[in-house]
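Checked the freezer inventory, then went back to the computational side. Two predictions to log before the end of the day. The first one is the construct we discussed on Monday; recording sequence and C-alpha cells without edits.
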Amino acid sequence: MSDNTNFKTLVGVIIQAEVDGNPRHELVLELGETPAYIIQSAGFTQLDLVMKARNIGKMFFDHGMKKGVIERLPEILAKPKAVYKSASPQVKDASVIMTYETHNGFPIIVALHPGKMVGRRIVNEVASMYFKEGPNPEIKWRSAGLLLWEA
C-alpha cells in the first residue's frame, strides 16, 4: 500500500478543492499494489490499486463518509474482514470488501473493480466506499454464495 501520509494529504486537498468549487476530478491516487488476499480470493490480476479523485468526492459528499475514514483507506484495506463477489449485475467481476469499520452501527464496505482503464493504463480501482444501511448484508451475501474470503 502507498505512503499513508501522501494519501491523507491528497484526500484533504481533494475535499477542500470541491468545497472551494474547484474539483480536482482528474487526479488519480495511488494505493500501491493490489493486496494478495484480493488477488487470491477474487481473482484480480496483480495491478496497481488506484482511486479516482471523483470517487473521494462521492464518498464524502454523497455517501457521508467521514474524512478521517477515507484518509485511513489504505489501513482499512490492509486488514479486511471478508471479501464478497459483488451482487450487482451491472458491475461484472467486481468485489466488495467488508471492513471492520462501522458508521452509526452500519458496516462500511469498499467496492473494487478489476482491470479498469484509468488514464492510459489498466489498474484495479477502488470504486466506492460507503456504509450499508439496514440489516447487516453478510447473512444475505453468505446465503447467496458470494463469500470469497474471510479473515
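The second is the one RB wanted added to the comparison set:
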Amino acid sequence: CPRQVALRLTGAKAYPITKQQRYQWDIAEYIEETLMRALDVANLLCEYQGRIDITDRENWGGRIDISHFLPEATDTLRIVEVKSTDPNSFSYVDFPKEWHVNQITVYDHYYDYAGYKRGTPTLTYFDRSGRSGNEPKEYEVKTDFERIRPLMDELDAMRSALPDLPPILPRVLKEFKDGKDRVLKQGPAWQCKPTTKQGYCPYSGLSCHPNMSWNKWGTRHDGSWGGWTDSANLDDVSAWANENAHEALLAAL
C-alpha cells in the first residue's frame, strides 16, 4: 500500500508490534536460517541476507534471503525469497502472491551475480504452523523488470510529494458464503485491517481511517436461475465492476 509506505516515511503514529507478530517473525527467521544451513552443509550456499544495492535510485535497497549454486550446475546462481504464512492461507490462497513476484523481480534485476550465470529466481512458501501435509511450495518466477519499473517510478513520485499522502486503497467487491446462499459485498481491502485485529496495517484506525464497513449488494440463492436479488443495486454493481473488477467478475455480472 503506497499510503502505508508514506505514513512510515513521515513517522506517523502506529500500533506497537504485538507478541503474535514478533512470534511470527521469529518463526520466519528460523525457517530461513534452517534452509540456509542445509544449503551450507551441502556446500551450495553462496550468500545469506545479501545486500541489494539499487544504485540508480535514491532510498532504495533490500536484502535477499538466500542465494545458492544449483546442484546440477555449480556455475549458476539462483536467489530464493522465503515466505511463511498461516495454515489457512497456505491451503487456500493462490501462490505466488503478486507483490512477492514484484519484490523478487526487483532483487533479481539488481543482484550482483559476480560473473556467475543467472538461474531462475524462486519464491518458497512455508506453513509456519508446521501442519502435517502442508509441504513447502516452490515457484520459479519468470521476471519482467520492465513491468516493475513504472511501479517503482510511482513510488518515487509519491516520496517526492511527501508530506502529501496517497489515497486510501479502493474498496473491493467480494463474494461470501452464507449458508446455502452467496452474498455479494463491498468492503475494505484486506490490507486495511488493523493489526489490533490480527490484521495487516499498523496505521489503520490511528493515522489512516479507511471505511471498514461491508455493504451488502445482493444475495444469490443456490440452485436459482435468477441473478442477484434482495438488496442488489445492479446499476451500482455494474458501474463499480466496469472500473475495478476482474474480467471473470465482469462476465458474471
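For RB: Helices lie at 2-9, 19-41, 87-92, 98-110, 145-160, 234-244, 247-252. The mean pLDDT is 87. Let me know if you want it refolded.
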